[in-house]
Specification:
Helix content: 10-25%
Shape: globular
Distance between the termini: 44 Å
Largest sheet: 11 strands, mixed
Number of strands: 47
Structural class: alpha+beta
Number of helices: 14
């Protein structure tokens, strides 16, 4: 996955919970980065960021600023342009340690420079700081104004697990005199008796007489300064906490009946909880009906029953915790109002389309290796005018049949059905944060890997995001129609991170519980999106299992693709598998099992990575082995692979992949074979990047060989929508877009009119033929293979050519299959095993019609695949 989205905006920004010991002359003051008891001595830090472009074009350019949490966009004031360009201003609390910034174009269409940049404010107590940035230059200039007061930083203040010791750090060594001024304070700012205070250079340790309370507030202070709050040890992941508060009920959220609705929310640390009822779903509207107090019960669950028919009433929770009141959406919301800020009580049965009770999952008789997966972003299907689809960018666009290009070629649903796919993989269709549903008439696009409400369909894909029932109704209509056309529905789910951290609804209710945050207050960021979900915690794991189960039951979903599943623990994945098996064992699960740098909140947590595939027998994982071996690394645009120039370095990987044994799994049913997906360059763009000097015919041959390897290898074939028609993502400047998560429709949409081109039409027919051939031959779809079932034939001087025979299965296979990959620039002669062989795949043709019958030696075209079946 390569999702920047709002991404880098929080990369390292959450990494320091810091405080300031300020100096004005010889006097010291202390202020808190996270919380202070007395900020009367504090003043603001004002940062002016000046941005100079040589082309003098500033339209759309803005700055994403962040400090210790999620960021925010700031616009430049073009009316105040001078020799230093344009300027924008941000005011910061005096305790701010650093300011991160990214200069970007609109909503992440591009960045001025690739890296995150930080202004060091550790020594600044107050005053004005000017930052001068020149477009395209990584370095920038910082000028402190005459009004700036500077000081010393204190940070990483934390109570240790013994609840007696507090540790802290300082940016400069303290004198012995200043060490004696260090005080430990309780929540009422009363000094606590210490038995020891010591410094080791810039690291300090203090011990109190007695112990700290686990839920108390404590501070470190220099005499006369503001107190600095200490971070307490993580109690959420302790056995004691989970034993006391882990709830196993299935009734969290709003449970509707015509006579009453019961609200239940898990908030074990809350002092008070109430539910707010609203007439409409748009946040900020002054339309509250009433607020109803809730009562705390077992396991930290608060509940209340409200009489009357509340169907269509919107609601939020107000939670008082740690002295603060937070208003939050329900994590278990079934639907919401516009932009997902208010949940809605809903009669789910009333949203069922006609015939929903009779809806039947297709393909339930298939094993996962029988699947043909087609990855699609909802908007991409219909956004190009050549699609002929009326409901552009909507769930309903996937229900339209009979749509064609102006020349009469099938598009949309009919195209997918004709192609022969069995499973449609939809990029995120839950409620995501990065499209403003109140501005759908503006140019907005996002893949959607920014979860806001996990159990709610995305509003921008509905015809009416303001009324919560509409998105639910239309999603079900989409699923029902796809099922009626023999296509199973797979959801792309993102349980590894959320769009926001502190502001995520679960954390507003139980602060910090949903994510991995260490005792220094640093948020784990293996996702690269600013936070990692703490799936190892009991109630987070339960939530994820509940969520997946809900989609499978309520919406009849047939499969789940787990984004960056290597950040999720194995136990949670296996719990999901067990829950889905109770519904329908044919529901498939697969994901990205990359090993990523995350800091779990418990010891000994095993994560769902490729290396742990053996511990997840019901979970398939993407194979980057075959992906990169076939056409080169996704991280190096010009690096070739087996089909486009690097035969020697990839030959053995292709052989192993053909067997369904990439190295991390020996079971083909756990291996997703692919050469392109939404991330990185499309296959066609990759081939154009590595083989720019080759002829069009040569590049098409590379494409066909790539597809042949995917569809003849053991495992589960997966393609990006449009790969079968040479899909390309070209930016306005003519370059290829390798990360089009927020690029416009002009880049991302499927260009259906390309099928008018004879070469493109031929490629489509070839993919269609490969799918049909694979369906007809179970020996290509084995769940696991043995050395006796696949035999490779040494090709001697034709080094790089791969030829192998697949033995027939004991029951029902249609004879021996012989597969030949020739990546060389010359035709080669291959000696076949004894007998007569029917050719089904050759050159530019594939399918279930016999092209010719041969025996003995056979000539295989350059850069091509040949597949034969023994008579």
């Amino acid at each position: 996955m390569k999702k920047l989205k709002k991404l880098a905006a929080v990369l390292l920004a959450v990494s320091m919970l810091c405080q300031i010991i300020g100096c004005s002359g010889k006097n010291s003051t202390v202020t808190s980065k996270t919380q202070t008891k007395d900020a009367s001595q504090s003043q603001e830090i004002t940062v002016n960021l000046h941005y100079l472009r040589s082309d003098d074009k500033y339209d759309g350019w803005n700055v994403w600023f962040w400090t210790d949490g999620d960021g925010k966009s700031y616009e430049f004031d073009e009316s105040n342009k001078d020799d230093n360009g344009v300027v924008t201003t941000i005011s910061l609390a005096p305790e701010t340690m650093q300011l991160g910034f990214i200069i970007r174009l609109n909503e992440w269409e591009s960045k001025d420079t690739d890296g995150d940049r930080f202004v060091d404010l550790a020594e600044v107590i107050s005053g004005t700081v000017d930052v001068y940035v020149t477009s395209g230059e990584e370095d920038f200039k910082v000028v402190k104004g005459d009004d700036v007061q500077t000081g010393i930083s204190v940070y990483d203040v934390q109570v240790k697990d013994d609840y007696q010791t507090v540790e802290f750090k300082v940016s400069s060594e303290l004198s012995q005199k200043d060490v004696k001024k260090i005080k430990i304070l309780d929540g009422d700012l009363k000094e606590m008796e210490t038995t020891e205070i010591s410094m080791d250079k810039k690291k300090g340790t203090a011990k109190i007489k007695g112990t700290f309370e686990k839920k108390g507030d404590y501070y470190v202070s220099l005499e006369g300064g503001n107190p600095v709050q200490a971070t307490m040890p993580d109690i959420y992941s302790t056995e004691e906490f989970e034993s006391e508060y882990a709830y196993d009920g299935d009734d969290l959220g709003a449970t509707w009946t015509k006579d009453a609705t019961t609200f239940k929310v898990w908030a074990p640390t809350a002092d008070a909880v109430s539910v707010n009822l609203y007439k409409e779903g748009e946040a900020g509207k002054d339309d509250k009906i009433e607020t109803v107090e809730m009562k705390k019960g077992d396991k930290g669950v608060w509940s209340v029953e409200k009489s009357g028919d509340l169907n269509g009433v919107y609601y939020t929770y107000t939670v008082k915790v740690d002295g603060q009141e937070n208003e939050a959406c329900d994590p278990y919301a079934k639907t919401t109002g516009v932009n997902g800020n208010r949940a809605m009580v809903i009669d789910m049965e009333s949203t069922n389309p006609e015939g929903w009770d009779a809806d039947v999952r297709p393909n339930t008789d298939l094993n996962i290796t029988d699947a043909f997966i087609y990855e699609l972003q909802v908007r991409d299907l219909s956004a190009d005018e050549s699609s002929g689809i009326t409901n552009v960018g909507k769930f309903l666009g996937l229900t339209e049949t009979g749509t064609t290009t102006p020349s009469g070629i099938s598009t949309g649903l009919d195209h997918m059905k004709e192609l022969g796919i069995t499973h449609l993989h939809l990029n995120p269709v839950y409620d995501f944060a990065t499209v403003d549903e109140t501005k759908l008439d503006s140019n907005q696009y996002n893949w959607g890997y920014d979860p806001k409400n996990y159990n709610v369909p995305e509003g921008s894909y509905s015809t009416d995001p303001y009324h919560g029932e509409v998105r639910v109704e239309e999603f079900k209509q989409m699923v029902e129609t796809l099922h009626q056309n023999g296509i199973s529905v797979v959801l792309d789910v993102v349980y590894n991170h959320t769009y926001s951290g502190e502001d995520y609804c679960f954390n507003q209710i139980v602060p910090g519980y949903f994510h991995r945050i260490n005792e220094n207050g640093v948020w784990s960021n293996g996702s690269g999106c600013g936070n990692d979900v703490a799936s190892e915690r009991a109630m987070v794991s339960k939530y994820i299992v509940d969520s997946v189960t809900y989609w499978a039951k309520e919406y009849h979903v047939d499969g789940f693709r787990f984004d960056l599943v290597g950040l999720t623990d194995v136990d949670t994945i296996n719990a999901i598998r067990a829950s889905l098996d109770e519904i329908d064992p044919s529901i498939i699960m697969y994901g990205e099992g990359w090993s990523l740098d995350t800091q779990t909140t418990k010891e000994g947590v095993k994560l769902a990575t490729q290396t742990n595939a053996v511990d997840m027998p019901g979970m398939a994982l993407f194979s980057d082995n075959i992906r990169d071996a076939v056409k080169g690394s996704v991280f190096e645009a010009s690096e070739p692979g087996y089909v486009n120039g690097d035969v020697t370095g990839t030959y053995s990987t292709i052989m192993k992949s053909a067997e369904g044994k990439p190295g991390w799994s020996a079971t083909a049913s756990q291996v997703i074979n692919y050469v392109s997906c939404h991330d990185n360059l499309t296959l066609w763009d990759k081939l154009n990047s590595t083989s720019a000097d080759d002829t069009l015919e040569e590049r098409i041959k590379q494409n066909l060989l790539s597809a042949s390897i995917v569809y003849t290898s053991q495992g589960v074939p997966f393609i990006l929508a449009g790969e079968e028609m040479l899909r390309s993502k070209v930016k306005d400047d003519g370059t290829f877009d390798e990360n089009s998560y927020a690029s416009p429709d002009s880049v991302n949409s499927i260009k259906w009119s390309n099928l008018d081109d004879e070469n493109t039409k031929m490629v489509y027919e070839f993919y269609k033929g490969l799918i049909a051939f694979r369906k007809a031959h179970p020996s290509l779809r084995m769940e696991s293979t043995t050395t006796e079932q696949i035999e490779f034939y040494n090709q001697g001087e034709n080094k790089g050519v791969i030829a192998y025979q697949i033995a027939p299965e004991a029951d029902g296979a249609s004879g021996n299959v012989f597969v030949i990959y020739n990546p060389l620039e010359n035709d080669v002669t291959v000696t076949l095993p004894e007998g007569k062989w029917d050719v089904y795949v050759k050159g530019q043709t594939a399918g279930n019609e016999v092209l010719e019958t041969v025996s003995g030696d056979v000539s295989v075209e350059s850069v091509s695949c040949m597949v034969l079946v023994k008579e």
